[in-house]
Amino acid sequence: MMGLKSSNVEKMKKSIVMIAFLSVLVSFVLADITYSYGNNKKTGTVNAFLAKDITVKLYGIEKSFLNSKKEIVYPIIYKGTSYLPIRTVAEISGENLQWVKETKTMFLGKTLQNPNKSLVKNDIPKGLVVNRDLTKQKRLNREKIDVYVSSNVIFMKDFVFTEFKDSKGHTVPMIFYQGSAYAPVIFLADMLKETVEWENKSRTISIGSDNYIASRGLNEHMKSCQGELQKIIEVYDTANTLIGQMSKDISQEEKIEILNKISESLIFLSEKSIEIEKWDLKKYEEEEKECHRKVYDALIDSKNYIEILENIAYLKAEKKDISILEDMLKGLYIKSQQSIDEARNCILNFEREDILQNKEDLEIEKSL
Domain total for the chain? Predict the structure, then answer.
């Protein structure tokens, strides 16, 4: 078993992307990591405020937040910083969320259950953020409450060890209240690439502009890129799962079956690479061509990685040493992960550019 101890925190920050790789290739369990949030090393119960007097607007629309029981929950203010439940942060940002109790680790975005953000495996919280019903939900007075602060809880965004910051850039902790984890509002705004504004008179937190216009969605060219990337991710994740099974106590016949399935994955990607390379890009815009290239790069790097997995599966089936391939495997894993991320981000950025263009068009119309 491989572990990460507190003395290796700095190393972990630089190479945390390897967690997904290690989790599928070995019986990987994170050891507890004690981390101090800036100068705040306190672990235990602290005083905070349940801000029932505060309104939260998202793109100009007042929102209410619910827990898993569909009960209204409120922002929390701790040492001048406003917090929202992490589950609602995940829903608004469209990110997967996983809590690993054994290691006290919160994963947002990439998770151990869904390391490549597969659309098929999405586990994004839903139904916890609703438009505020002004006829039923009235503004109440804030209440003094006790929240729990822990210095040994790990938070990872896309497998990157992440610290929360307040508006002044100071490190602040994750807090817990009634079984739910809370993150600073400014963290959500940063994820959305939006600003946060505070209106003291109305006691309102506004995230994003009132002029927000939802994306019209991907065009047919970009839908094709997204669809092919999803197929690559599914094959990639399946191959990782299969190689992980080779480490278990299984029969020789089962090992041969796994080897054959990995070989089938490799054949699929080889055929897919020929298909994508022959796409007619004459009607594609430059940005669309760039995303196509990144999807193709993700495919090739994934194919190279799975080729090594195939060799490892063969050696394991033959009960031979695989150490000679381990360094190569790690390098190809990192490269393939980077390529998949770049392709995904290219598609996401294309959607975001569409939103920004819509905003510009709106401003032009208003000025006419």
Answer: 2
